[in-house]
Amino acid sequence: MKQNMNLYIGIDFGTSGARAVVVDVATTIKAEARYPFELAVDWVTIWRDALFSLLQQIPRELRREVRAIARFQQRIIIQLTFL
Question: 3-state DSSP call for residue 26?
Answer without folding.
Answer: coil
